[in-house]
């Protein structure tokens, strides 16, 4: 294996070191490029830029592989709970029984929200999008939580984010605030906090808990995506964890990123409302003069099936079958997927369904409203964001500060 690349610029010879990863993915280390040659690289959207070395998750986009700390997603989904997965992602190893018990107990210790947070939430108008609310409240939490131990910050967030999400949902649908139930596991508690009705006992449905557990696991980490990179970038400026996570949520909200789950269902509903003519919408997505894109299709890294989408599709089918609900949206999604995957445009551009193509169907079947889908995604992505923030600090990554090619005016003078 080569350890350097040789190249010439304007007759001068240079060498740059090569870095290899675990699976021999390779990078040219250009950190001295400008100093030695005067050149920078130009890579809008960071399509070819590695910003760090990381050991949290690994994606092989050509083969459709996703590993969390070395474990294939297909194994984790069948053998782990979301909270075990969170421990794995944060700490690097799966917990043993005692570690899992202690981790879960410690999270429960922080299962409460300051009354001032509730008062702030009360003042926020109901028409405001839940992602904006969650991001703002996460930022505000920083004022109230003073952690002596860094590990406690992670536990606070794991405990409090589901509470904030549930409070936001309940306020919107006119239900009084709910409280955490320390007797329940993480997922059951989350469901109860969302859906319990005053003076009625809340009955857990294992089919729903299982689906929620699985979809949150699927979201748990995905290497240097837009929101995770946002969290790392803020952290690199020594911004605190809560503010960094709040910024990550804002990035996730975008419709090209996590906001796609809401956009997918809205798109499917529109197609259905307009007669369900799939071919017409596929043609629209292919037309370069039309801004419409097939939401839930395509991915920067996956040029093959997104393994999360395969699993999410099965979870959605299973959930709908077991709940005995008929969902025309699922049928439409499956037909749309089939048609798009046979179309030369999607084949040539290697556009496959991504996680968001089926995740909204799962959330909708659970009873989560559309504008809360991305909030659920954020709850799932939380361990990943925290692990990257932690790793960024341990690695002592330098402050993130890209360069640019200036194409504005040359120096000029203001006329008197
Ligand atoms: N529908 C139609 N055409 C598409 C789609 C789509 N969903 N996605 C990509 N393309 C086309 C582009 O127009 C482009 O065509 P061109 O080469 O002729 O210009 C080509 O495929 C490559 O697409 P890019 O936008 O350059 O790819 P990029 O890696 O920058 O973007 C992205 C990836 C943002 C996910 C894109 O595929 C997209 O917009 N998808 C729809 C939104 C979506 O589902 N987002 C969720 C992603 S998963 C997640 O973040 C959790």
Which descriptors would you attach to this protein?
416 residues; mainly alpha; 3-stranded antiparallel sheet; 18 helices; 54% helix; globular; binds acetyl coenzyme *A
Describe this structure in words.
By secondary structure, the protein is mainly alpha-helical. The chain is 54% helix and 7% strand. It is built from 18 helices and six strands. The protein has a three-stranded antiparallel sheet. Strands 4-5-6 form a three-stranded antiparallel sheet. A hairpin with a 2-residue loop joins strand 5 and strand 6. 40% of the residues are buried. The model has no long low-confidence stretch (mean pLDDT 96). The structure holds acetyl coenzyme *A. The site of acetyl coenzyme *A (ACO) has 20 residues, from helix 17.
What's the short story on this structure?
The protein is mainly alpha-helical and 416 residues long. Helices cover 54% and strands 7% of the residues.
Summarize the SSE layout with pairings.
Blueprint: E1 4-9, E2 12-20, E3 26-28, H1 33-37, E4 57-60, E5 65-68, E6 71-72, H2 73-79, H3 82-91, H4 97-109, H5 115-123, H6 130-144, H7 150-173, H8 186-195, H9 206-219, H10 226-236, H11 241-253, H12 260-273, H13 278-286, H14 307-322, H15 328-342, H16 344-348, H17 355-366, H18 373-395
Antiparallel strand pairs: 1-2, 2-3, 4-5, 5-6
Helix pairs in contact: 3-18, 4-7, 6-7, 6-11, 7-8, 7-18, 9-14, 9-17, 9-18, 10-11, 10-18, 11-18, 12-15, 12-17, 14-17
Bound molecules: acetyl coenzyme *A.
Tally of DSSP helical segments:
18
Structural class: mainly alpha
pLDDT < 50 runs, ≥5 residues? none
Please state the CA-atom Rg, rounded to the nearest Å.
23 Å
Give the DSSP E fraction (strand runs of 2 or more residues).
Answer: 5-15%
Number of strands: 6
Give the overall shape, derived from the CA principal axes: globular
**Mean pLDDT across all residues, rounded?**
96
Q: Ligands in the structure? A: acetyl coenzyme *A
Strand arrangement within the widest β-sheet reads: 1-2-3
Distance between the termini: 63 Å
Helix content: 40-55%
**SSE order, one letter for each helix or strand:** EEEHEEEHHHHHHHHHHHHHHHHH
Major sheet characteristics: 3 strands, antiparallel
């Amino acid at each position: 294996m080569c350890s350097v690349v040789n190249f010439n610029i304007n007759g001068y010879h240079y060498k740059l070191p090569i870095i290899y990863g675990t699976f021999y993915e390779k990078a040219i280390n250009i950190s001295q490029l400008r100093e030695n040659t005067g050149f920078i690289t130009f890579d809008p959207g960071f399509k070819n830029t590695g910003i760090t070395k990381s050991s949290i998750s690994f994606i092989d986009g050509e083969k459709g592989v996703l590993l969390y700390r070395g474990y294939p997603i297909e194994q984790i989904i069948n053998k782990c709970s979301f909270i075990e997965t969170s421990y794995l992602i944060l700490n690097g190893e799966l917990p043993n029984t005692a570690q899992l018990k202690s981790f879960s107990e410690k999270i429960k210790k922080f299962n409460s929200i300051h009354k001032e947070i509730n008062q702030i939430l009360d003042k926020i108008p109901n028409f405001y999008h839940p992602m904006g609310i969650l991001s703002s409240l996460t930022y505000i939490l920083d004022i109230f939580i003073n952690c002596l131990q860094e590990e406690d910050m992670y536990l606070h967030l794991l405990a409090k984010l589901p509470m904030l999400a549930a409070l936001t949902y309940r306020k919107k649908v006119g239900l009084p605030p709910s409280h955490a139930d320390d007797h329940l596991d993480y997922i059951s508690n989350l469901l109860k906090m969302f859906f319990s009705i005053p003076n009625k006992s809340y009955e857990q449905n294992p089919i729903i808990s299982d689906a929620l557990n699985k979809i949150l696991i699927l979201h748990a980490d995905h290497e240097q995506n837009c929101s995770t990179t946002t969290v790392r970038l803020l952290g690199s400026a020594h911004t605190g964890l809560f503010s960094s996570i709040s910024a990550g949520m804002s990035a996730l909200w975008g419709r090209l990123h996590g906001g796609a789950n809401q956009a997918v269902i809205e798109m499917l509903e529109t197609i259905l409302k307009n007669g369900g003519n799939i071919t017409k919408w596929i043609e629209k997505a292919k037309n370069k003069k039309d801004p419409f894109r097939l939401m839930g299709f395509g991915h920067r890294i996956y040029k093959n099936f997104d393994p999360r989408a395969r699993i999410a599709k099965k979870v959605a089918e299973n959930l709908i079958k077991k709940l005995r609900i008929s969902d025309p949206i699922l049928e439409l999604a499956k037909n749309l997927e089939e048609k798009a995957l046979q179309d030369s445009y999607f084949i040539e551009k290697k556009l496959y369904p991504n996680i968001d193509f089926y995740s909204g169907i799962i959330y909708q079947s659970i009873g989560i409203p559309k504008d809360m889908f991305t909030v659920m995604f954020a709850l799932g992505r939380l361990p990943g964001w925290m692990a990257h923030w932690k790793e960024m600090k341990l690695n002592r990554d330098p402050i993130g500060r890209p360069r640019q090619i200036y194409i504005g005016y040359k120096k000029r003078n203001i006329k008197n």
